[in-house]
Amino acid sequence: MRVERRALPLRHPGFQAAAARSQLVEDILEDAATAPSGANIQPWRVCVVGGSAKDELADAMLAASRAGSVPAPAHFPDPLPKVLRGRLQDFGARYYASLGIDRNDAPA
């Protein structure tokens, strides 16, 4: 994945900071949509918040972290939702087929 740093001018005639931030977020999300994930299941959901909603979320996350009540990260969601399980099975089938390994060849 290509990572690009962008610098925005602090002062520029007609510069709209909110519009520039919005476009930057859209660009980041567009790049992230094609980012690889384990077994190609793309188990994420993205929500973009701003203003007071962002502040409330940040406060809640900080409080949970300080209280030690944040769950440990998991490689896959547990239980794995049906749509993600289908992606995982599809990936496995394609991967092992590309290696010439039959689906029923457990010893391989």
UniProtKB/TrEMBL annotation:
Residues 23-72 form the Nitroreductase domain. This is Nitroreductase family protein. It comes from Variovorax ginsengisoli. Coiled coil: none annotated. It holds the Pfam family Nitroreductase.
